[in-house]
Amino acid sequence: MIEIVDLQVSVEGKAILKGLTLSVERGEIHAVMGPNGAGKSTLARVLAGHPAYEVTGGEIWFKKQNLLAMAPEERACLGLFMGFQYPLEIAGVSNKQFLSAALNAQRKAKGMEILSEVDFEALLDTKMAAMEILPEFMDRNLNEGFSGGEKKRNEILQMALFDPDFAILDETDSGLDIDAMRIVARGVNQMRRSDNALLLITHYQRLLDFIRPDFVHVLAHGKIVRSGGPELALELEEKGYAPCNS
Ligand SMILES: Nc1ncnc2c1ncn2[C@@H]1O[C@H](COP(=O)(O)OP(=O)(O)OP(=O)(O)O)[C@@H](O)[C@H]1O
Ligand SMILES: [Mg+2]
Questions:
Q1: How close is the Cα of 87 to the center of ligand 2, in Å?
Q2: Residuewise pLDDT in 10s, the chain (246 residues)
Q3: Given the CA of residue 219, which atom of ligand 1 is nearest to it?
Q4: What is the domain-level CATH number for residue 174?
Q5: Strand partners, 184
Q6: For the chain, how many structural domains are there in total?
Q7: What is the pTM of this model?
């Protein structure tokens, strides 16, 4: 599904990713953990196509296409989704307007029929009920004044609507109370299929009790320094990242 080969990325002239290699196949969930400032969000942003990050080397193949040659919206239309660590607030655009416009733009690009307002609302109602999001959130400005946990839940609602082939969730668990984490995890697990894949960036093993990954990786010093199964997350929780530095 996605193949990242020897990826090198700089921001403002500073090298952040220094030869990162990672492959995610359909049906798999991968967790990426690692110290603060290691470059996890940088990886997520490069995948999504953030313009501030300069790719100085390496390749990224998504569904056998050259991801780095595509604009962010082309990546989204090809089925890539990124849930932000710090979701943006947009004044003057309601949550519902944003979701409807974004979903229909993607459907149009995929050659699918545009959803009518009635059909969109029916779909939205179902997804919101699953995420236990109150209807009033739809008419509020996108993320404006939402609590940290509400923003994260809203990101998962977006993901449920867009139904991406490959999603990257950057610390979606941080700031969630335990009930919200269960709801978010349930949302993610309901979307799990043999033909899609997920990259979860997290600091806490706790999320991985709810969303069981197939692989856990440690990102440090700009590359993947260790990979293992779910037991690696338990080991990291116990011992920290110091053993990864040796
Ligand atoms: N736009 C930017 N300008 C300058 N430096 C940046 C920029 N974006 C990222 N960096 C630097 O790149 C490094 C990696 O940042 P990144 O956000 O990817 O870390 P992270 O692994 O996600 O950390 P955390 O666990 O704290 O979220 C940091 O030293 C950060 O300060
Ligand atoms: Mg980060």
A1: 12
A2: 999 999 999 999 999 999 999 999 999 999 999 999 999 999 999 999 998 999 999 999 999 999 999 999 899 889 999 887 667 677 777 888 889 998 998 888 888 999 999 999 999 999 988 888 888 878 887 778 888 788 888 888 889 999 999 999 998 888 888 888 888 898 899 889 999 999 999 998 889 999 999 999 999 999 999 999 999 999 998 898 887 775
A3: 21
A4: 3.40.50.300
A5: none
A6: 1
A7: 0.91
Q: Domain range holding 199? A: 2-245
Which amino acids bring their CB within 6 angstroms of ligand 1?
A: 11-12, 16, 34, 36-42, 52
Residue to mutate, 33, 42, 54, ligand 1, most ligand atoms under 8 Å from C-beta: 42
Q: Let me know: does 9 contact 46? Beta carbons within 8 Å.
A: yes
